[in-house]
Amino acid sequence: xxxxxxxxxxxxxxxxxxxxxxxxxxxxxELLNAxxxxxxxxxxxNARVLKECLTAxxxxxx
Length: 62
Known about the structure:
Blueprint: H1 10-21, H2 26-44, H3 47-58
């Protein structure tokens, strides 16, 4: 699992993500997030990497 910044224009992506949620109900926003997660997981494709990402995301910062 890569833990260093590995994509172009992180701020631009974050802005696009916020824009995609604009005007959605909380339920619609949750569905958008779920679809996005599944699409991105499909792009990663590697079960081991996906498991590492899940573990890292579930770890609370100290």
